[in-house]
Amino acid sequence: MNARPIFVLIMLISIMAEDLYSEGPVGYPRFMQGPMVGAVTPDEIIIWGRLNGAFSGEIQYDTSKNFTQPATLALSTSEEEDYVLKWKLTDLQPDTRYYYRFKVAGGTSRYQRGLQPFYTKTAPAEGKKGRFSIAYGSCPRYQLDRVQDVWSTVLRFQPDLFFWVGDNIYGDTQNPKILAEEWRRQRDVATFQPVMQTIPQLAIWDDHDFGLNDYDRRHPRKAEALKVFEQYWANPAYGLPGTPGVFFKYSYGGVDFFFIDCRYYRDPNKEPDHPGKTFLGKEQREWLQQSLKESEAPFKVLISGSGWSATKGPGGDSWASYLHERNVFFDFIRDHDISGVILLSGDTHRGELNAIPWSEKGGYDFYDLVSSPLGQAPSGVNPNRKPEKRIRPVFSREENFGLLEFDLTGEPVLRFNLIGTSGREAWKPFVIRADELVNGVTSWKSK
Length: 447
Known about the structure:
Layout: H1 4-23, E1 31-40, E2 45-51, E3 56-62, E4 71-76, E5 84-89, E6 97-104, E7 118-121, E8 131-137, H2 150-157, E9 161-165, H3 176-187, H4 193-198, E10 201-204, H5 207-210, H6 222-232, E11 248-252, E12 255-259, H7 282-294, E13 300-303, H8 323-335, E14 341-345, E15 351-357, E16 365-370, E17 389-395, E18 400-407, E19 413-420, E20 430-433
Parallel strand pairs: 8-9, 9-10, 12-13, 13-14, 14-16
Antiparallel strand pairs: 1-2, 2-5, 3-4, 3-6, 6-7, 8-18, 11-12, 15-16, 15-17, 18-19, 19-20
Helix pairs in contact: 3-6
């Protein structure tokens, strides 16, 4: 029997089957990750989500839980964008809770049926002086902790914002597809779901979510890593026109926050320190200096993945390897009479509170508030690491997040502590007034 007709028949059946599937049902259009709340302002909210195909995603939102007069916004995604969508809700009222829900491809997302509407809140009105809190952290290693109990504790404290300060995943790769997969795995952590659905999330990166350990400007695929980062976060901005990066300025409740890109332009750690060695890069440094000069906020919070103090010593993966640039920058703050600067960082796998006593140089004392890790075993004390001034003992009892509590109702005050997974505070609280962060004032000795 001639086998050719049978072969042709099989091929025709195969082609017909492919056509049937390509034109037929596409499964259940749904969310794969999200929703997650991104940047909020007094009149805008950004919502992030990722679908399971090139579908339309419609968000309905209202100040009423019953959606009596909902507004709607529909967007469509594509494979090129990894099926990610970012809905920007506009013309909102300040300091107001908004409820939101979705339709995917015209219907309710299959696995969100029966759920209560999600909700979040816009930022306070500009000029309003009140109280608010921010939680922040670094170093959740999904590979070692897929439960991450710390998020349940974060939810108990109900901060107004959450900041990711680097090593938000351990991608440890040059491959952007693997970075994207690690972002998805972190978004799937069950304890994180109610946090990301209600509390606005903002982020920068450090080495493990930028590329490989201790990676710097030489990363051959950094532009691709940045594209993935931009897809998976809903920040208000990413760098400047012509100056790519994850850095941006964000204002909330009368406080200005400056998120820094500590990898894209960074010279190698091991390069000897000298006047030309840079952590920030020229354009980012000029942007930061100008933005600080223009800020009138009582507190100006600078957020870096790498620690600000000299703790790790020369060649270490921190500002300790860039002391010339750091010190010139601190002198700039002093010489331009810029008050209220507070420093945040992560990375160390332990909690720290250190001071850099610039009051000895005619300025004021800078405090580096360090929170780490969110999800892996903390590291113990390393006696070889010696910051300029240690204000609290190293905290390595349990996973932790930082909690900043701002009170601007009177003399502006900041209260800081680390909160362990157990919900306990790490230390006696650190309290600093804005009038202590001015040239000529020494505060570290009393703290």
